[in-house]
Task: inverse folding
């Protein structure tokens, strides 16, 4: 059974640009959550999608957005990139039921220069 | 409120036991998790415990939960150099029933020396 796949693994962007990251969850999983990991702030929850609907959102500016497709794959987008957006972006996959584990992908390392 | 704390570093000798501690503040937490992160990698789920349990054992891993003190610990028996990594505890709160949102601790860097 394939795990959670995040693409790309590494990305370098310039300030002001926008970026789109992709996450393919485990087959059969309907919930995808996104987290930002930085040395200073640790792991911070961005948002969560279940059956193509956002059902929870963290405290990030509107430049951070996401969506989920009918096959449960999810994308997150960051517009007008800032240096502080440099981070490891992790995606977690779960069935979406209350009492289940979340499995993480390898992450996308975004560097903004 | 939502706050999960861990000590930053732990150094142990190979073959000894490691104990990583975590405290949380949300008394409504239902599930508590331990994740491992190796350099350049994502998070690997190690184990989890439901809040109505006191202890859970899985091979070399033992999780202890003191709900009164809101204290969670992970014991790794016979620690090996391959156990060197950052360990995160995470909680899932009862009020987050209809969501998979996890609140993570700051992470404990475990270093195992020969």
Result:
């Amino acid at each position: 059974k394939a795990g959670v796949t995040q693409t790309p693994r590494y990305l370098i962007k310039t300030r002001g640009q926008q970026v789109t990251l992709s996450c393919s969850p485990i087959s059969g999983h309907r919930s995808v959550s996104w987290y930002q990991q930085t040395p200073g702030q640790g792991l911070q929850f961005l948002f969560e999608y279940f059956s193509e609907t956002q059902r929870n959102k963290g405290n990030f500016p509107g430049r951070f957005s996401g969506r989920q497709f009918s096959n449960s794959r999810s994308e997150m987008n960051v517009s007008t990139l800032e240096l502080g957006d440099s981070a490891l972006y992790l995606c977690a996959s779960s069935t979406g039921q209350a009492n289940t584990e979340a499995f993480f992908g390898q992450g996308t390392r975004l560097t903004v220069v | 409120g939502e706050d999960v704390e861990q000590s930053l570093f732990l150094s142990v000798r190979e073959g000894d036991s490691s104990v990583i501690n975590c405290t949380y503040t949300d008394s409504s937490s239902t599930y508590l998790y331990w994740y491992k992160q190796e350099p350049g990698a994502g998070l690997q789920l190690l184990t989890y415990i439901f809040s109505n349990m006191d202890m859970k054992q899985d091979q070399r891993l033992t999780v202890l939960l003191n709900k009164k003190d809101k204290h969670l610990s992970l014991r790794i028996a016979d620690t090996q150099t391959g156990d060197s990594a950052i360990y995160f505890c995470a909680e899932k709160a009862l009020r987050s029933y209809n969501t998979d949102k996890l609140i993570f601790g700051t992470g404990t860097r475990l270093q195992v020396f020969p």
